[in-house]
Amino acid sequence: MKPVNFDYARPADVGAALALLADDSLSVKLMAGGQSLGPMLNMRLVQPDLLVDITGIEELKRVEDRANEIVLGACITHADIEDLRVPDVTCGALPSVARGIAYRAVRNRGTMGGSLTHADPSADWLSILSTLGAKVTLRGRSGGRTIPVEDYMLGALEADLRPGEMLVSITVPKLSRSARWGYYKSCRKTGEFAHAIGAFLVDPDRGVSRAVIGATESRPIVIAEATHLVGDGKAERLDLAFDSHAAGAAIEAAGMADPIDRQTHVVALRRAIERAHTA
Amino acid sequence: MTEQGVGASLLRKEDDRLLRGRGQFVGDIRLAGMKDVAFVRSPLAHAKVGEIRIPDSCRGQVFTAADLEGVKPIVAVSGLAGFKVSEQPILAFEKVRQVGELIAMCVGDTRAKAEDVAACVEVDLDELPAVHDMIKAREAASALVHEHWGDNVFLETFVDVGIEAAFDAPIKVSREISTARQSMAPMEGRGTVAYWDSRMEQLVLYTGSQMPHIVRTGLAECLGLDHAQIRIISPDVGGGFGYKGILLPEDVCLGWLAMRCGHPLRWIEDRREHLTAGANCREHHYRITAYADRDGKLRGIDCEATVDSGAYSSYPFSACLEAAQVASILPGPYDFPAYRCRTWSVATNKCPILPYRGVARTGVCYALELILDAVAREAGLEPHEVRLKNLVKPEQMPFDNITKKHFDSGDYPEALERALAAMDLKAIRERQKHPEPDGRLIGIGHSIYCEQAAHGTSVYSGWGIPMVPGHEQATARVTPDGGLELRVGVHSHGQSMETTLAQVAHEILGIDIAKIKLVHGDTEYTPYSTGSWGSRCAVMAGGAVATASREIAGLAKRIGAHLLQADPNDVEVAHGKVVGPTGSVTFEEIAHTWYLRPQDLPMSVDPRGLESTIGFKPVRDSGTFSYAAHVALVAVDPEIGDIEILDYVIVEDGGKLINPMVVDGQIYGGLAQGIGTALYEEMNFDASGQPLASTFADYLLPGPTEVPAPRVDHMETLSPYTEFGVKGIGEGGAIAPPAAIGNAVNDALRPYGAELLRSPMTPRRVLEAICAASKEKSAEAEREEAA
Ligand SMILES: Cc1cc2nc3c(=O)[nH]c(=O)nc-3n(C[C@H](O)[C@H](O)[C@H](O)COP(=O)(O)OP(=O)(O)OC[C@H]3O[C@@H](n4cnc5c(N)ncnc54)[C@H](O)[C@@H]3O)c2cc1C
After folding, report:
1. Which of A134, A261, B224, B384 has a Cα-to-Cα distance from A10 of 20 to 30 A?
2. Domain final position from B616, B647, B664
3. Which InterPro entries match (chain B) (predicted)?
4. Does the residue B180 lie in any domain?
């Protein structure tokens, strides 16, 4: 299991990376942390002519703290979030989820942008960032666009990345002090990919009530108006409002046919709610 | 016991290099001009092989079956009556019978380049229906793995010891119990480096092997070479567990080409090859019935066992090692009067099944111990009550059981009672009456086994495998500076023999451990041996080292007595010296005299000097029977299906322990593997015979966070037949955990009436069992209502 012979470039800015991507005569692959791409290269599932390492691009490591949101460069690592090298605006949600991704060695290198683009249905960032209502910003030579995280994923291992485009940043809204969130990941051993994820956010001050069921066969199931599942966030105990039949129906409607899978995902969401965290 | 002798928990001599990353494994070997090999492997489980097209640009770098003129396939014949012989091709011709089977060998300056070459080779394959289910494979309509056999059965065996007498028992419990196929996962995979040494006229082949001499014998057969023309070097071995006892077609390929190509060759197995094409093991299926009286006394066991042997009989252990053993070891440590067992070793289009630590015993223990718990539930008894009713008692020892196994010594009930006492069964039963705050269910389960180990000629000659162990030999040699060199034909793949065998020699000669060096892992330097397998090294190589050391003691005493001007009958060996009535002389002085100052010795001196090669066999070679009771406390999450091991107790008896710390290490490692079998490891295949796990992301192994620190207690009942009373314990740790954990899970699920009868016990299987039980319950309620 050794990769095919390829060339390697490490551009210093996004423009240079985009210029390299634009060469139609070559098969070009971006590499961030290499934690997912590395094995795929070794197994020759990916056989690029040119590998563009984007971890030398300063802009992609940058953090921009705005009034209502924070913008994270695509190459921010899981460990950057875990260790709070990046300010937390999510009442602890992102650092807490970061700690449960893989093992420390993977977190040291793996990036948020890489994880979202790899689009593994079990990935943690995908579920929690769609819960928080985060967006990704993509840039190509002809300009940029910003779309919700959940729309960026088209299907298993497939991101909405057009030819010549790259992901440059992730924008996460700041939660208000009244916000409550919960995340439950069911996996068979420490550091393993999830086989069910439940996540929710209620932020009464911002009028947000969202629930996400992740680690499905494909895209996470995002319930953007989830007051029927998790309430509006004003009640003391959120889990009392939880309607497992409604959750099961939502999951079934999204196409999950296997009853045991459905049960596991409903339980994951309920446990996320039982473990509601506040600021 | 001395500070360094038998019984001392000495730190391991080998750790200095291993823990500093300075070990030398096959993958560390660099030879000038060495090229790498990659293989074209079959992507299909069962297919006719048509044309193989090699582009001109790769000519001379690709070799197929057509090139291997005169090379014989790998054949491992069992002498058991009715065994059907398979021929494992070195490179496929005519047909491939498993995914991953070798089709062509490709050479490149680096592994990546060799893989580039492999990617250019085109093979026409005409797919045939795959045989993937060992039960269906026995049906007449099944496709055939080896057409000329007429069916898919390597071997069928049958024993019946008066089973009819059990049929009127008041309790009859039947279950279908099975263990998944696994892929054993030593940290280091397989690997081979080969070159032709033109000075020695020898093929030198480095391969991480548990049994270098057997590899040489097998390779000599395939390549048509004299033994003297082959040297096998097994350097440091990063775990073997059985996988490194096997002669692989890859070894033969590299050996063949190395004799012709003029440069060294290397093949290092990667993890995908390892998982999908290599190290498969463990797939057992049982239909088992227990007959018992109401008080739990067993009246008989009736069983049909099937083992999925895969496509070929692998060398040297053969395709029927597992199934044929099942029949003889199923009765476990129990005494009951009636028994019947039929077994099938079935060929399928999967990798050959290989012996894995605990060979056959892990599946047997799982089946027997689960059915005993089912008996207990049926009889309304505690599981341990049923066991205590049936375990062989200490006063019966030595005991010949229903399949004529000769249990040498031990107190099985004591082991079980100690283990349960450590867990406080009563308190747990009390705790189970109240719901847990987190909604999980608590369960306690146990299992007990005895393990025949280090059995020898009389046992294996009856099995007819190609290698029957006889006397195990060791060489002991005092060096001119008074150190001791030990040479043995077994090889350490993690057993710490550099330390433990030195302890054995120290016990007898008193030479400082630091000055005792073990030479092993090289056919050129060591006496012939069947190698490290069957938990035999401590007993057999330990016995041989003890015997050779005693010879050395005798030789040294005579020289020492002469130097001391004493009668040889008046001197003894102690603390690395020969001690006489009036003084002592060190081994260093004795050795110096023999080697470098012979003028100080009389003409009558024993010309053997200070060196001895001698063989050892225990007083009886029917094997030692170590045993252990394992108790697990688990919490089962009935909503998600997760299982957590809360506590784990092991009470084990390995006779005299040469180094208790090393024994603990063996137990910990075995336990981790047993937990893998119980909860995580599963090598699934689809209906076309495709393996569904090709990385460790799909093939789950327990990690440090999944393996609890067990509480281990030792009993030391000596074996009457071995040196020091030692028993083999190398495999035991991996035998009992699936059964103990399985019984604990079933205990936890009692409120649901659910039962899990297949390993690994995954979250999905837990939920399915609960689901099935609740369906069964409502169906029953409906039936009652209707009535
Ligand atoms: C043992 C192990 C366990 C793991 N467990 C978990 C887990 O529990 N939970 C979890 O969520 N993840 C897990 N992962 C995945 C891990 O989080 C990876 O780091 C992540 O999926 C990919 O990030 P990366 O930066 O390494 O991306 P890379 O591997 O470098 O790239 C992945 C893909 O994204 C593309 N890409 C990368 N950056 C960009 C960009 N800025 N713009 C466009 N395309 C880009 C690449 O071309 C490639 O196709 C695990 C990984 C391993 C090896």
Report:
1. A134
2. B616
3. Ald_Oxase/Xan_DH_a/b, Ald_Oxase/Xan_DH_a/b_sf, Ald_Oxase/xanthine_DH-like, AldOxase/xan_DH_MoCoBD1, AldOxase/xan_DH_MoCoBD2, AldOxase/xan_DH_Mopterin-bd_sf
4. no
Say which CATH number the domain at A267 has. 3.30.390.50
**Structural domain count of chain A:** 3
Domain boundary among B580, B598, B616: B616
In a domain, B147, yes or no: no
Is residue B224 located within the same domain as residue B87? yes
From B272, B640, B679, residue closest to A264, measured CB to CB: B640
Predicted-complex ipTM score: 0.95
Q: Kindly state if the Cβ of A46 falls inside 6 Å of ligand 1.
A: no
| B353-370 pLDDT per residue, tens | 999 999 999 999 999 999
If asked whether residues A145 and A216 sit together in one domain, one would say: no
Closest atom of ligand 1 relative to the A168 alpha carbon: 41
Structurally, chain B folds into a number of domains equal to 3
Q: Is B30 in CB contact (< 8 Å) with chain A?
A: no
Average pLDDT, stretch B755-772?
Answer: 97
CB atoms within 10 A of CB B466: 18
What does the block give as tokens for B300? 């008989």
3-state secondary structure of B758: strand
**Residues A185 and A163 occupy one common structural domain:** no
Indicate the top mutation candidate among A31, A49, A81 to test ligand 1's pocket, ranked by most ligand atoms within 8 A of CB. A31
Residues of B in Cβ contact (< 8 Å) with A268: 640
| pLDDT value at residue B427 | 95
Tell me how far the alpha carbon of residue B63 lies from the centroid of ligand 1, in angstroms.
38
- The predicted structure's pLDDT at residue B22: 96
Angle between helices B383-390 and B412-423 (to 10 degrees): 160
Chain A residues with CB under 8 Å of B760 CB are none
Report the length, in residues, of chain A: 279
**Ligand 1 atom having least distance to the Cα of A125:** 11
- Model pLDDT, residue A190: 84
Q: Is the pTM of this model over 0.90?
A: yes
Report whether pLDDT(A279) > 60: no
Q: What mean pLDDT, rounded, does chain B reach?
A: 96
B47 and B64 belong to one structural domain: yes
A198 and A111 inside one domain? no
Q: Which domain holds residue A43?
A: 7-53
In a mutagenesis test of the A interface, which of B37, B115, B645, B699 is the best target, namely the one with the most A β-carbons within 10 Å? Answer: B115
Residue A118 Cβ < 6 Å to ligand 1: yes
Domain that holds residue B285: 280-457+620-776
Q: Do A260 and B764 touch (CB under 8 A)?
A: yes
What length is written for chain B?
Answer: 787
A124 C-beta closer than 6 A to ligand 1 = yes
